[in-house]
Design brief:
The protein folds into two domains: 120 residues, no CATH class; 88 residues, no CATH class. The chain has nine helices and five strands, in the order H-H-H-H-H-H-H-E-H-E-E-E-E-H.
């Protein structure tokens, strides 16, 4: 695989990782892997392919671990995912992109272009915040607990339609301390589906997770 060798040398990545990532892309795309060799000297192009290779190689590791066999993916899902992944360097976001790719291979229901669009709009803080909220709600649901979060932490996630929130601008005393600007938060049905697609809710969000609240 000549293009993989060239990529490995140009990007400074391990040859084996590049080769396996390129082979996975071929299997998912259904055609030979090719790069614009003459553009690898362009720092932006090289930066994007370095990110793509890392994300795809991590997806391959997830697939190997979970016993997911590679298969052809719809171009309308795969190509936008690979395009957007090129701009992702943050390790937290990179992991979500890898999980989305792996879950898209595993299950047709996760191959939704809207998941790519939402993940593309998230930053590091959004990813951490959403993972924390999903985990907190999952932990609270079985016991019917009410948790709390600050409005500032959920505004962007509400805009992405992952959460709904009702804002309480009045001071509320919780654990003996007054808190202003708290909100009651619910994960939307779309948010539950997105969480599953990016691997946040594999084992720790039961059927009641979407009905639990954070306040």
């Amino acid at each position: 695989m000549e293009d993989a060798r060239i990529l490995s040398e140009a990007l400074g990545l391990a040859k084996k990782s590049v080769e396996t990532a390129c082979r996975l892309i071929e299997n998912l795309l259904g055609e030979p892997f090719k790069v614009a060799r003459g553009m690898l000297a362009d720092p932006i192009y090289a930066f994007q392919w370095r990110n793509r290779i890392r994300i795809v190689d991590r997806a391959r590791q997830i697939m190997d671990k979970d016993g997911i066999a590679a298969r052809l993916l719809p171009a309308g899902f795969l190509l936008p995912l690979l395009e957007a992944a090129g701009d992702v360097e943050d390790p937290v976001l990179s992991e979500l992109w890898s999980r989305l790719l792996a879950s898209g291979v595993a299950d047709n229901k996760h191959r939704r272009p809207v998941f790519v669009d939402v993940l593309k709009r998230m930053d590091h803080d959004d990813a951490i915040g959403f993972q924390t909220i999903v985990s907190d709600i999952a932990a609270a649901a079985p016991r019917g607990l009410v948790l709390r979060t600050n409005v500032r932490d959920v505004g962007r996630l509400v805009a992405l339609q992952l959460l709904t929130a009702s804002i309480d601008s009045q001071p509320v005393e919780i654990d003996g301390a007054a808190n202003v600007g708290m909100s009651e938060v619910r994960i939307t049905s779309f948010g539950v589906q997105f969480a599953e697609a990016v691997g946040i809710a594999r084992d720790d969000t039961g059927a009641g997770a979407s009905d639990a609240t954070l306040s």
